[in-house]
Design brief:
The chain is an alpha/beta fold. It is 43% helix and 15% strand.
């Protein structure tokens, strides 16, 4: 059995990771491509993608050379480039600071800079506490004999956490603009500058003075820098996937398939065909597979889901379906990078609730969409929508009760209770929508989104040889096919149930690879009673 301690869960210290022989997915060839140059660099990614670990690796690289990089791709390249040179590193992590306004933020940065000055033998003026942090940084860089590297993690933390307060947001924006202006003034005296965050701000705002900033997020070559590729999962974690498969009593192939469905799907550049897995979620699953494919991303979001929900209140009257998949033009992406012209889509895209997807269109060309990248995030967005965005919000405890019942009923193969739970979902999530019980597909989608909320791997309109199944649920060892009919009258229910049954059997829904135990259930929903009227187990 592989050692779960070798998985670096929540370990943002690169040197500790290496000292403890923990798994490290080696993308350091990409690190070399930008760190070897003398230019300020920006990289934005959603939370839980390894930005802090990357900064820690850069700190080690510039402070100690390749001491902790033995056997990694960058080792030889860096030795040839730097010839053993090391640098003084100033590391600012804005997400760890405690502050309520720009003055306190300035003080927090100043304290760190004062410690760096003391470490490096630089004497700051007696009034350094009253000076701006940018001026203190300038003094250190210009006074010390050593060459410096500046690393800033989560630069946008003050901004994203004040979006609901325009006055506070503007004060932070102006402060950050001045601070980065001071950084530009000493850029030529520093070896390297690297900045991370969740969202981008247009150069006309925060980075207007630091206008020589290289944005790696706009370069397709650097898309795989953070996150895991399919090859990474197989190369570094195959034994853990095998262990997870044995623990869950499923095939290794099925385990890979479920990991992909739950945690893969991130795409950060339109030119990249390959998608990425969220490292945090993969590591958490592999460390304790007995707990199943949980939603790790949302559960560890802290304040961020609330932030997103508060900022997209203007989509209260927009159907959930319309924010799960949105067609956009490639040129529209450039408008997503400024919070001054922010839209709900830009917030959802930058925070990781939506990702890029390219599909062939009817004309033979390609269309670009924003979609939820995987089941984990789709579940998070659905929960966010029902709890915090929709005008008639659903209580969290109600969602929890329905979700836990669905999971339990599938596990126990208790189909009577499963159908009752579907009826409860139809009443709960469709009661305030006048369109809900006018359309068969709308009713189907309520059940679909309920399954998604529960972390169940469900898919709509699944193609088979002879047609499309309404709803297919893929469990680790079973496949469920549901066919829905909507009855406007009591007298039509029996006929519709027989139609749904014949449709499932005649079109051989669910008979697709990989083959699994197949359970097929035709369902008739009563539009009058807003509940399931009849069903049958095939």
């Amino acid at each position: 059995m592989p050692d779960p301690e070798s998985l670096p869960i929540a370990n943002n210290s690169f040197e500790a990771l290496r000292n403890n022989n923990q798994k490290y997915v080696d993308h350091t060839d990409l690190v070399y491509e930008f760190a070897s140059l003398y230019r300020p660099v920006l990289l934005t990614r959603p939370r839980r993608f390894g930005k802090s670990l990357l900064l820690s690796a850069l700190k080690s690289l510039f402070s100690h050379g390749t001491e902790y990089f033995k056997g990694l791709k960058i080792e030889k390249l860096w030795k040839e480039k730097e010839q053993g040179r090391t640098y003084k590193v100033i590391h600012l992590d804005f997400s760890t600071f405690s502050f309520e306004d720009k003055n306190e933020l300035n003080n927090q940065i100043t304290y760190i800079l004062a410690d760096c000055a003391k470490r490096d033998g630089v004497n700051l003026p007696d009034d350094y506490k009253d000076r701006g942090a940018g001026l203190n940084l300038k003094t250190i860089i210009e006074s010390a004999p050593a060459e410096y590297v500046l690393l800033i993690d989560e630069y946008d933390y003050p901004l994203t956490h004040s979006l609901g307060n325009k006055e506070l947001f503007e004060s932070y924006r102006q402060y950050m603009q001045g601070f980065f202006g001071a950084i530009k003034g000493v850029t030529g005296d520093m070896r390297f500058i690297f900045i991370t965050g969740v969202g981008r701000f247009a150069k006309t705002s925060v980075f207007s003075q630091l206008n020589n900033l290289r944005d790696l997020g706009l370069e397709s070559d650097f898309s795989p820098l953070l996150g895991y590729t399919d090859d990474d999962i197989h190369q570094y974690f195959d034994e853990y996937v095998e262990n997870a498969a044995k623990t869950l009593n499923i095939s290794k192939e099925e385990c890979y398939s479920q990991i992909k469905a739950h945690y893969d799907g991130y795409r950060f550049h339109v030119e990249n065909e390959s998608t990425l897995y969220n490292p945090w979620s993969v590591l958490n699953f592999l460390s304790a597979p007995k707990n199943g494919f949980k939603n790790f991303w949302y559960e560890t979001g802290g304040a961020y889901p609330t932030l997103v929900a508060n900022y997209i209140e203007n989509i209260q009257n927009v159907p959930l379906e319309s924010i799960q998949k949105i067609e956009i033009g490639a040129d529209e992406l450039s408008t997503f990078y400024d919070y001054f012209t922010v839209t709900p889509l830009s917030i959802l895209y930058q925070s990781g609730y939506l990702s890029l997807k390219v599909e062939e269109n009817e004309l033979g060309g390609q269309s670009l969409f924003l979609v939820s990248p995987n089941l984990e995030v789709k579940s998070s967005l659905t929960k966010l929508y029902y709890v915090a965005v929709r005008k008639d919000a659903v209580e969290t405890k109600t969602i929890q009760n329905i979700s836990s019942a669905i999971v339990s009923n599938f596990d126990k193969s208790d189909y009577e209770k499963l159908i009752k739970t579907f009826s409860a979902a139809l009443n709960t999530f469709g009661y305030d929508d006048n369109e809900a019980f006018k359309s068969e597909h709308y009713c189907r989608d309520i059940v679909y989104f309920t399954l998604t909320l529960s972390g169940i791997n469900a898919q709509r309109e699944v193609i088979s040889a002879d047609g499309r199944a309404d709803l297919v649920v893929e469990l680790t060892d079973k496949r469920f096919v549901f066919e829905f009919k909507l009855a406007k009258t009591k007298s039509s229910e029996d006929k519709l149930l027989k139609e749904a049954e014949n449709q499932i059997l005649d079109k051989r829904y669910g008979e697709i690879l990989p083959l699994k135990d197949l359970i097929r259930i035709p369902i008739v929903i009563s539009s009058k009673n807003k509940a399931i009227a009849s069903w049958k187990l095939l």
